[in-house]
Amino acid sequence: MKLAIMQPYFFPYIGYFQLVNAVDKFVFYDDVNFITRGWINRNKIQLNQKEHLITVPVANASQNRLINEIRIYKNPGKLRKTISHAYKKAPYYTSVMPVIDQILDCQTTQISELAAFSVTKTCEYLGIDTALEFSSKKYGSSQSLTKEDRLIEICKLNNAGTYINPVGGVELYEKAVFAKHGIHLQFLKTNPVQYRQFGEAFIPNLSIIDVMMFNDKAELQDLLNSFSLV
To answer: What was the pLDDT predicted at 219?
Structure first.
């Protein structure tokens, strides 16, 4: 089994979905510390051919609190108008906007659940059938372990022979440490991504919203497979 573990992000970038698609099971790491000014409750879209930040307001956000303890204090529904205005002339707006509507209508007060729901419903649209679960619901007993040891423990509990991490983890985790436990550690590196947007100058590293608005299902599949494992 191939496994990946990642914090739930709100409409994350294409590399996040490449990671989900590359494994048999993906664990939303919701019982670790919240990341302020990270991607758990916000992301970037394109508005008037410029990068624009969209944010779900949360209450008492702190890196001293767990992600699943952070509450949404204002309905994110108003983001609907911003996203609709930004992409109403995009080629796949009529197909993608209903997915976004369904996500923004999610009845939850937890940012962890909303962010995970944005991933789950987007996976359905992209045709990704990877098993998804929350660390807090299945692996709470391992919470006291150090970061690396906990990842290894979750792999063991799933009999996972391969653990895949985003390439940023190269500085954090050593393949030899995982290998001692019979686990093959790999890092996913996203290939350069480019597609036609509204303007001539490409705006990189935007939310999956932007990617879906400008690419059909076949093109999305090509982008999902545009990565290397190192």
So the answer is: 97
